[in-house]
Structure formats: C-alpha cells, structure tokens
Amino acid sequence: SAHQWQAPGANDSRGPCPGLNTLANHAFLPRNGSNLTVPIIMRALESGYNVQPIDILRVAAKLGLLTTDEEESFQLQNLALHGTIEHDTSLSRQDFAQGDNLHFNETIFTALNNSNPGVDYYNTTSAGQVLIQRLEEDKIANPNLINTAKEFFVRVGESALYLSVMGNATTGVAPKQFVQIFFREERLPLAEGWKRSEVPINDDTLDFVSSEIRNATTWAPSGSVICPWNRLQ
Ligand code: HEM
Ligand code: MG
Hints:
This protein has 233 residues and is mainly α.
C-alpha cells in the first residue's frame, strides 16, 4: 500500500531523528526526505502517529528551517546541524565530535536497548535512567560534551516521544520490541502488532510523560557552556 515501509534509496535524505525518518520510510513524509515545510511536517506527525500540531513540535519544525540556507524548506539530513536541535548524548547516535551524529549506532543504543531488564517494556522510569546512563558514558567518551538546560529539555522531550508514539501515550509504557524496531529499522512495527495511538498525542499527554521521566532522573549541567538557548551557525 501507499504507506508500506521502504528502505531509503541512495538519493533519499535521512537525518538524526528516528521519528521523522520513519515517517519518510512510510511515505507520510516524502520518501526523498526533501522539500520539507512546516505544514508538511505537522500533517505527517498527525497522520503517521496521531501527534497533534502542538506548539513545541511546530517550533522544532521551524528550527529545522534554520538548519539550511534554503528559504522555506529543509531536508532531513540538514537536521544534523550541530547545536540547532541536534545535541550531544543522544540515545542512538554518536556526538558530533565523535564523527557521526546522524546515523543509528548500535553501540550508543546499548544503554536504551538493555534498560528495564526482566520485563518486555520500557517506561518513564527506565527512560529517565537511560538519560543519566548515557550522560555518564558520554562524559568519559566526549569530555567536551555540551549539556545545558536546553539539551536536557530536548532529550527528555525525545524520550517522551518514543514512549508515546511506540507505546501507550497516556502511561508512557512502550513494548521494547516496538521501540527497538523504531530505532534500528526506522519502521512502524505494524506486522508486530503496533497501532497508531488512538489517543491524540498532545501537550497534556506529552507533558505528563515528560514530567514522569524528569521525576525518574537527576540532572546537572556540565562543561563550559552554561546556557546557550540557541546557537546559530
Ligand atoms: C531526535 C523522535 C519530531 C528533529 C529524536 C529522538 C527521538 C525523536 C526519539 C532521539 C534520537 C536519539 O537520541 O538518538 C521524534 C518523534 C517525533 C519527532 C517521535 C514526532 C512525533 C521531530 C520534529 C523535528 C525533529 C518535528 C524537527 C523538524 C529531531 C532532531 C533530532 C531528533 C534534529 C536529533 C537530536 C539528537 O539526538 O541529537 N527525535 N521526533 N523531531 N529529532 Fe525528532
Ligand atoms: Mg545527537
């Protein structure tokens, strides 16, 4: 069907966001990952994930426009521009300083993959623990990592997003298998039983899941950059 998963071809643009790459692999975004505008992004979030057009994601899409010299569109790979949205200490990508902040990396993904041992789901508690574990690992791997309030805010939001779109958006509980397929294959695990959320994912659901993650984590800024809310480059 029109929204069948297809691996990207050599000329298709993909980026550091598994959520948007997956939408492109299923043609909710153009399969070539190019000529993306804010309304194209907002409509794809809705049709693919039942994520409502909320301000926080509209702002993310607008920041996407700042990652390119194009006037009113961007490509998925532009999103890897370090410091606009892309940040250090990702769940599944190396830091910019380590060489490849764009492609899925199985070694980096180990912390999330192996979290919440003994059960077959991830939740807000495990997501909070993974954020801290990644920071501890990354402080050794990249002593110059940037870890300000901005990066922490974005990282918590991204964790809330993978739990919400792959799992129960009200509770933040997501089957491990779905989350793993989402990150590794950038595929909707339809054959495995995943369904688009029946609950619209909006500020209420995301704020709840985010605050539960935040409650399950501790965080302190580190490094020399203290609070650069946006670094344009
Ligand atoms: C990263 C999911 C929407 C741009 C991420 C990550 C997740 C995620 C889980 C973390 C990847 C990691 O740490 O390895 C989603 C979902 C979305 C969504 C489920 C929609 C429902 C967006 C939008 C934008 C965006 C609208 C902006 C156009 C990015 C960027 C990163 C990212 C630039 C890289 C950050 C980094 O890890 O360094 N996304 N995202 N995402 N997302 Fe999205
Ligand atoms: Mg990153």
